[in-house]
Amino acid sequence: MVVRRIGEICRIVNQRMLLQDLHDSHVCNSLLVAESEEDIWKNESLFRQRLNNSDDYNTEESYQARDYLAATMQFIPGHFACDVVWSTVIQIHPRLKIGPNMGVSRGEWHI
After folding, report:
1. Is the four-CA dihedral 97, 40, 19, 53 of positive or negative sign?
2. Which terminal CB of the chain, N or C, has fewer other CB atoms within 10 Å?
3. Cα–Cα distances in Å, from 103 out to 61, 67, 84, 109?
4. pLDDT tens track for 69-99
């Protein structure tokens, strides 16, 4: 009972640390949400772009990336996924939708 409760508390603490890291860096760690195949190759370049665009943030101290190497080796991607995930439906204007003989429209291709 006590061991299980300690494990639950550790999971919540790790989730909060990963969520704080997501908030600070605007990059989601794979321990929080597993990456899709198309995201894996982009991960490093997006992180570097965020660090280089420091003008976007009004903070006095610079953000330093946290190293989760040990946790990444111990846990599978998405292990600390949260139960509640925000989602929304984006309505696409009828002009951007594809016609019967057109294939993918420009609007949907850009999304």
Report:
1. negative
2. N
3. 48, 44, 35, 10
4. 777 778 888 888 888 777 888 888 887 766 6
Rounded Cα gap, residues 71 and 78, in angstroms: 12
**Separation between Cα atoms, residue 50 and residue 56, nearest integer Å:** 9
Compute how many other C-beta atoms are within 10 angstroms of the C-beta atom of residue 82. Answer: 13
Distance (Å) of CA 45 to CA 26, 50, 63, 78 = 13, 9, 16, 21
Whether the Cβ atoms of residue 96 and residue 107 lie closer than 8 Å to each other: yes
